[in-house]
Amino acid sequence: MTLADHDLATGVGVLDRSMAILDAVQAGSRTHASIVRATGFPRTTTHRLLKSMEAHGLLEFVGGYGYRLGPRLLKIAASALQEPSLRDIGHPALERLASNTGESAQLFVASLGERVCVDSVESSSELRTFVKVGAILPMWAGSAGKVFLAWTSANARQELMANARSLTPATPTRERLVQQLATVKARGWASSAGERQEGVGSVSAPVFGPIGELVAVVSISGPISRVSRIGAKRYAPAVMTAAREVEAAIGGTRT
User: Fold this and answer.
1) Best label site of 20, 52, 107, 121, fewest CB within 10 Å?
2) What is the pTM of this model?
3) What is the CA radius of gyration of the chain?
4) Of the residues 24, 49, 80, which one is the last residue of a structural domain?
5) pLDDT tens column, 17-58
6) How many domains, in total, are found in the chain?
7) Whether 223 contacts 201, CB under 8 Å
8) What burial class does residue 227 get, using C-beta atoms within 10 Å of its C-beta: 0-12 exposed, 13-18 middle, 19+ buried?
């Protein structure tokens, strides 16, 4: 964890540094010196941020112990737990999708240039695929990544694809991927066959929020023997229906 790393995280230096300090305290760094070592930040910068975060209730200083997470964070966490999460809202649609298709279903969100699986329902089939909740996957390989890229601005897309590399013989080149994205946006769904992991196919559709913004992606995945590029057309209507069900639950608007 370095100062440079956090400057690149969001481009908002103070916020990135503050989050790094919270991560360090949560991981067990308590004193000013140990937080400096954990973050790599200058001592004066660390001191200034610690005092500011303490004043806002994000951290609390306890004599003889050091810093710990503050009461304001606990209030924020308690409020968040009272609100239904996207995972809670979308889970029934994933359950139906997995049941209707016989394949594993997932819900992805974008985070710091990658996609994260926030919910997953496993297929009941003996031969199946499974993506763990919390799995972090690239944007430039797999059908869910294509959906995120298709609804991303050209400049942001270039940044997301900057580190693209071949994962399998079927992983599309950057040029080929850009060509595919126009088709994805036009038809409203994406497919992949062995592009991220050999032998695995997937179909994905976008979930839009209240003002038409892309908030998540619904997917199914399975053995390429069933979810091939040609076979994807058979699954696309069910995946798009599930995406619309999630939208309806969050008050979203399909664009």
Assistant:
1) 52
2) 0.69
3) 21
4) 80
5) 999 999 888 888 889 999 999 999 999 999 999 999 999 999
6) 2
7) yes
8) buried
